[in-house]
Each structure stands twice: as structure tokens, then as C-alpha cells.
Amino acid sequence: MRICLLTEGSYPYVVGGVSSWCQMLIQGLPQHEFFIYSIGAEAKDRGAFKYKFPPNLKGVQEEFLDEILNQYSGGMRENILTAEEREAIYELVIGGRPLDIRKLASIFRDRRRFASSLDIFMSSDFFDVIQRVYMEKYSYLPFTDFFWTMRSMLLPLLYLLQQDLPQADVYHSVATGYCGVIGAMAAEIYHKPFIITEHGIYSREREVEIIKSDWAKGDFKAVWIQYFYNLAKLSYATADRVYTLFEHNAEIEQDLGCDPQKIGIVPNGVHMERFADIGELQKHDGPLTVGAVVRVVPIKDIVTLLRAFFLFKEEFPDARLVVMGGYDEDKEYFELCKQTVSMLGLTNVEFTGSVNVAEYLPQMDFMMLSSISEGQPLAVLEGFAAHRPFVTTNVGCCWELIYGDSNDDLGEAGAVVAPMDFEAMAQEMIRLGKDFELRRKMGNIGYERTKRGYTYEHFIDRYREIYQAYVQEA
């Protein structure tokens, strides 16, 4: 069976997180062929793959959003859409009711009428739709700014909808954003099943980014946020099944409009054997070493970790912090992190870049995760597999990983604090730093919790069952 895995801003260009999940999924199911449909930001990344592809990965289709700039239009056009097509675009923009993907397919797959998505934007029909949305919902904003915001917002999606779509037996998206809508479109065109595995909650992650951003100004932040929630609703509505990593995410998806009958839970899993040579924590001479396996990007909030480490060093002046993860993805944020290190006068802080974490984890006394959004972080599970306790923020399913669910009486594998609360984070770091037996006990609890419920074998067996249900239809 041929499975098209749709990714966005992750595999195969970024190491860790969702990308690691994709690689493990493909490797674990060699009986199936996989094809990657990847959406990236900039064409300069074309071919810059960070993974060695398994033999059953048969190809990658790369689409980059900055290639929109290469489009051209023949100029202003009048009355090129039917009334039903205008209504479909209106529903896409307004987001009030479930949208039938077939209506979008009828517009954007018609190459006879539209050679470029700009043909639609350069039409009186599009102007009329945007004016209608403006009058109904956004009349408090300057119309010219609103029009160009909507154009910037919609152009990437409409551009992607017009590109060639690969044929497959199953379409499997790793998010509900652009790649979710493209997966829905491909499944509609080829009459195949469409499933989603949502790691974090895509629309909420975009909301956090937009609120903190400089490129979206004032009241226009709300316009952008609503748009990404609209994409999520469209993806949920068209998917045959929606999988997530833990119960709380399933509840959020339901609150956002996903039919609860569609939702299933499949936890992440780790290769326990990869860390088999790393035993439980041992006492040692010398300074404490604190680790974080994390990409250096804003959503991971390394700055808060650095501020917490500053307070930690007041108790442990010789302590080390080792940040293990790539720092090329957002160079401006990496510079901010280095400036923060300098401003706080921190010593013994190392940014390693991408490394084999199994080689570094034996050096760590405990681990940190400071993110402001997560799903079910593989970094925590890998740390647990190496008997290392964690201090995490209360994001994704970190609470469940640290403290266990209602069926788990193992105890605490670390501590959880509120996102961005560097003082509370530092207090928990100090508590663990002062008590070796506590660290050892927590590390062993994390190991046992992972062994019971979060192994690679369980993860692969579940997706083998999911795909098997579609084999007869292929």
C-alpha cells in the first residue's frame, strides 16, 4: 500500500519532534511504501534533507511558499466565478460553517480557467467576497489593510491547492494546517481515505505564535488566528479519522469542532534499546549538569530556561547547562539566546547543535523542557528511557508523563511548572539539584512509566492496525 505522508515545516528538513516521529513510522512499517508531500517556507531549503531515507520511502514532493512570488496574472478579470464558487470562498474566509472540500476542488483544480491562483485574486469576484466578509465581521478595521491581509493570508493556501497532488492509497497528514487541507483535497480528487495525526494542537500553536509576533499588527492578529482555526475545522470535517497522542488533546479537538467519533489516541513511543546501556543515576564528584534536548526556536522558550538557570546557579555556581538541538532553524532567536547568556553573565552554557542524545544523556543529572506548546514530547520519553528525571512546563501531556494518569500509581518522575515561570522552574531545579536520591527515584519512575506505555513497538503496532484497515480498499 502507498501512503502519502503530508508534512509542514518539519520532515525531512528539521531534526526531532514530528520529524523523528515520521522517520520512525516509515522505518517501522517496511511492508508499506511511503511518499512525502512536504510544505516548506523557502525554496533555498530544497533538497536539504536531514534524514537518511529508509528504502520504503519512494519520493518527496517539495512545495515552498516563497515560490508564490514567481506567479503572474493576466490582469483584472470580471465575473469568473459562479455564485456557488463565490459562496465557497466566502465560507473558507468566514469560517462559520463546515465547508465541503469538493467545492474548493471544483475551483482550484480547473486549469482551463485559472492558470494561477493570482487569476482569482485579480478578479471582481474575489474583491466582492472580501468586501462582504469585511462588512459582516471586520468593518472596524481599515478596508485597504484588511483586503491585503486577506490576500496574504489566502494566497499560500490557494497556491498549494493548484499544485500537482501525488496519488496514494491513503493520505496521512501530521497537522491540520495547510497540509491538512491539501490532504483533504488529494483524498477527494482520488477518492481515497484521509487521516490526521495531530501532535500538538496546530491552530493553538499558531495562535501563540501570532500573539507574540511582530508581523501581525493589532487587531489583525485576531484575523490571522481565526483563519488558522478555520483551516483546522476544515481538516477535521474532511478527515476519516483523527489521531492524537493523549486524552487532553482529544478533548481540545472535540471542543474545536472535531466529531468525537473520529478521534483515536495513539501515544508516541521510543526505542528503549537505544538507551539500554544507560543505567540509573549515579553519584559523582564535580558540578551538576542540566540538559535540554530541544530545537532552539521561540516555541521552545529557551530564554525562560536560561533565566531559570541563572537563578539555579546562585545555588550551584559551577553547574553546566547543555542544550542539545539544532539552532539553524531560527537564527534570530538563536542570537537572542546567546545575547541572553551574555546579558545574564552565564558561564558553562553549551549549545551543541544536533547530536546523538544517547551519547550525551549519561552526562546529565536531570533534564529540562521549557516549551510554551508541545504535544507528547519525544525528548521527555527519551530522557525517561535513560533514567533521567525532568522539570517541564505544563504543556501537552507533560503533566501525565511526569505524574501519571488515573491508572498509574508509580509516582512522580519530576516536576511540572507553568509556562514562562522561570522562578518556579528554578525552584524545582534547585529541589532536584539538592537531593540525589530524589533524582534517582524520579528517574527510575520515568523509566518504568515509559517501559509500560510508551515503547516504539506499541506505537508501530497501533499504526500497523490503522493502515491495515485500509489495505482492502487500496
Unreliable runs: none
Task: Please tell me the overall pLDDT.
Answer: 91
CATH architecture of the largest domain: 3-Layer(aba) Sandwich
- Biggest beta-sheet profile: 7 strands, parallel
Number of E-state strands: 13
In DSSP terms, counting alpha (H) and pi (I) runs of 4 or more, how many helices? 18
- Using only C-alpha atoms, the radius of gyration works out to 24 Å
User: What is the CATH class name of the largest domain?
Assistant: Alpha Beta
Which geometry do the CA atoms define? globular
- In percent, how much strand structure appears in the residues? 5-15%
Number of domains: 3
Helix coverage percent: 40-55%
N- to C-terminal separation?
7 Å
- Counting helices, strands and paired strands, the structural category is alpha/beta
Find the CATH superfamily of the largest domain. Answer: Glycogen Phosphorylase B
CATH T-level fold name of the largest domain: Rossmann fold
Task: Write out the strand line-up for the largest beta sheet, numbering strands in chain order.
Answer: 3-2-1-4-5-6-7
